[in-house]
């Protein structure tokens, strides 16, 4: 695999103060799962997230669900649950039922495709932990030794319901750090 990316790129950041006033960062990532109890079990007992509070169900006879959440007006949010994931962002898990619900997971190549990337200090131990817990790991780990991501090791894995996740580690940093004082957000500094 060839890495053709560059650390300079075409993007130039806007002047400070541009963009959304008061932006501090990402508070949470919300996603819908087919079975919230299964998802909480996986994220807490396999990944190591910490469970917090839950709400629901939510169901409305008018168009509130459509107007406020852009879902079918008869959709029912059975339950939502917040999890804290280490030093990263929080997760808001949803379980819905809806007359127009699609049940297939998007691939990364699909519009709306996504994955969750979990940073670990010891890649080998974390990978073995996933395998010991019956997690489906995709392919073999990839280690970058050049380009802006030099120093990064990664591999994809799937949740029990097929959601894409990634295991990542770069304990000595990434190569781009030698070319700029600016830094991507990094779980290692907390």
SS-based class: alpha/beta
- Distance from N terminus to C terminus (CA atoms, Å) equals 32 Å
Strand content: 25-35%
Count of separate structural domains: 2
The total beta strand count reads 8
- Sketch the major β-sheet: 4 strands, mixed
Quickly give the CATH architecture of the largest domain: 2-Layer Sandwich
Average pLDDT confidence is: 92
Shape: globular
Q: What level of helicity do the residues show?
A: 10-25%
- Rg, rounded, reads 19 Å
Task: Kindly report the CATH topology of the largest domain.
Answer: Signal recognition particle alu RNA binding heterodimer, srp9/1
Low-pLDDT windows of residues: none
Separate helix tally: 3
Please outline what is shown here.
This protein is an alpha/beta fold. Helices cover 15% and strands 27% of the residues.
């Amino acid at each position: 695999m060839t890495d053709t990316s560059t650390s300079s790129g075409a993007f130039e950041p806007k002047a400070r103060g541009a963009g959304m006033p008061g932006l501090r960062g990402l508070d949470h990532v919300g996603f819908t799962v087919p079975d919230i109890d299964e998802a909480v079990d996986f994220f807490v007992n396999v990944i190591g997230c910490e469970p917090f509070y839950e709400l629901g169900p939510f169901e409305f006879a008018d168009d509130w669900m459509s107007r406020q959440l852009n879902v079918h007006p008869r959709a029912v949010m059975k339950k939502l649950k917040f999890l804290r994931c280490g030093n990263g962002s929080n997760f808001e898990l949803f379980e819905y039922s809806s007359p127009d619900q699609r049940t297939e997971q998007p691939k990364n190549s699909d519009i709306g495709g996504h994955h969750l990337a979990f940073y670990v200090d010891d890649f080998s131990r974390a990978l073995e932990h996933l395998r010991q817990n019956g997690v489906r790991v995709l392919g073999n780990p990839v280690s970058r030794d050049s380009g802006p991501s030099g120093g990064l090791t990664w591999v994809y894995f799937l949740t029990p319901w097929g959601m894409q996740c990634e295991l990542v580690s770069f304990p000595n940093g990434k190569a781009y750090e030698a070319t700029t004082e600016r830094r991507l957000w990094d779980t290692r500094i907390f």
